[in-house]
Amino acid sequence: MLNKNEGIHDDCFNLVARKFAFEELEKLKGTNKNVSKHYMDLKFSLACQLSKGDEYRTKVDYNQLAKFALEWPWRKYNVKECTWILIPLQTVTACGIYNLFILDMSRRALYIVDQTPKPDLYKIQPLKKYTNKIQRVSTVLNEVMKVSCPWWRDDLILFDHRVVEVNQFELNGDLSGYNVLLAMHAWNGKRIETSICNNDNYEVRKHILLHLLTYTGNKNIANIPKGVRDHLERYISLTSKKQ
After folding, report:
1. Cα–Cα dist 92/96, whole Å
2. Are 104 and 189 a contacting pair, CB within 8 Å?
3. What pLDDT score was predicted for residue 104?
4. Which phi-psi region, left, alpha or beta, contains residue 117 (left: φ > 0; alpha: ψ -120 to 50)?
5. Positive or negative, the Cα torsion across 14, 136, 140, 162?
6. Alpha-carbon distance 132 to 162, whole Å?
């Protein structure tokens, strides 16, 4: 993960997203509070097959996808009651370019996080860049929600669509996935709040790696000495307080 010339592997991305979801549920342990953030991993994005045309897409098993995308094993909750649903999307598979769709269920708004530069074609109407993605994500999400939440009546297409103001820079895929994970964790409902510079290759990778190493669900966690794990946990805690 610290190799600056490589993007994040799908399995690592999914494990970090899982760690964030675990943290979210741990904070609410012993309370009756609703889960505010529902984290998805890349399984939903994979099912959307965004890089393929309609005629080349394979059939989606929505029952199976609902289990992967809308459920975590640590606590049962209704995704529709979450304040935000965070959907990472791998939009250009070959280059490892990622976007983040944030569904704000209370405001019925879709926030789009995209750090790639906007071509001149979309500078006047930036949302046009995402029309096909929104339509496809909406189609898959509606079908998945019908499985898990039969009373789901929302339609992503009818949400208020907004592009989040973020630093934009030329991405070759090396940092794109890491920055989407950073954005998922740092989203506060209005903006992405983090002390990590999102174009600092080493710092971004180090921050995500620390989260991965301190995840108790990591099957290889026992390979890390307890003293080292404690130090990493303290570092993560101090870093989070600065955000």
Report:
1. 6
2. yes
3. 95
4. beta
5. positive
6. 15
User: What does the DSSP assignment read for 76-106?
Assistant: ---GGGSSEEEEEEEEETTTTEEEEEEEETT
Q: What share of the chain is helix, strand, coil (3-state, %, to 5)?
A: 45, 15, 40
Mean model confidence pLDDT for the chain:
80
- Taking each helix axis as running N to C, give the angle between helix 62-70 and helix 131-148, from 0 to 180 degrees, rounded to the nearest 10: 90
Sign of CA dihedral 236, 41, 160, 199: positive
CA-wise closest residue to 7 among 106, 92, 72: 92
pLDDT band at 159 (very low <50, low <70, confident <90, very high): very high
Evaluate whether 63 touches 69 at the Cβ level (below 8 Å). no
Q: Which helix (H) or strand (E) holds 196?
A: none
Question: Which residues is 103 bridged to in the sheet?
Answer: 85, 110
Please tell me whether the overall predicted TM-score, pTM, comes out greater than 0.85 for this model.
no
Q: From CA 189, how far away is CA 37, in angstroms rounded?
A: 10
